[in-house]
Prior knowledge:
221 residues; alpha+beta; 2 domains; 3-stranded antiparallel beta sheet; 51% helix; elongated; transmembrane helix; DUF4956
Amino acid sequence: xxxxxxxxxxxxxxxxxxxxxxxxxxxxxxxxxxxxxxxxxxxxxxxxxxxxxxxxxxxxxxxxxxxxxxxxxxxxxxxxxxxxxxxxxxxxxxxxxxxxxxxxxxxxxxxxxxxxxxxxxxxxxxxxxxxxxxxxxxxxxxxxxxxxxxxxxxxxxxxxxxxxxxxxxxxxxxxxxxxxxxxxxxxxxxxxxxxxxxxxxxxxxxxxxxxxxxxxxxxxx
Length: 221
């Protein structure tokens, strides 16, 4: 059975992972409860089985890991980052419950998912990357035409585009698109290659003194 040190290490790690990282970055209370409950549940079951043979406890622990994963992933639709936090929560409980030896190895394995998620889930890590599922109100069969339409719609260059459905009866196109938005305080400079340069503004000559200036005409494209 794992010592109180392992249990304390698990509670510290899951607290940092869920209450420190996930709650501040995503803030879903239902998933916070789910992550904490799954972690403590796996810890308790793995600790109870620690007195059995190592092979049996490991097999039951991995089986419990898989069953909980299936139940969680089939219950509600989760974002991919939620899946990462859920699996990390299960892993922390399993490592602590099995009492992995030596203690430094268990501490390193428990710190690993916390550190990885702290880095890759940081807002500055690929902060401009966005993904949307867009329904276009017409059936577009040409890839270049669809790319140009998305470029104009999003104001940014589509980096990856996957057509989910093209319905010529209902006249619509469903597409998953990945693109990158400019950073805060910056204006997007993306333009379609065939859009051409912006026409310069045409300003009238200064009006003579004492006369009423004519309206300014700006040529736009």
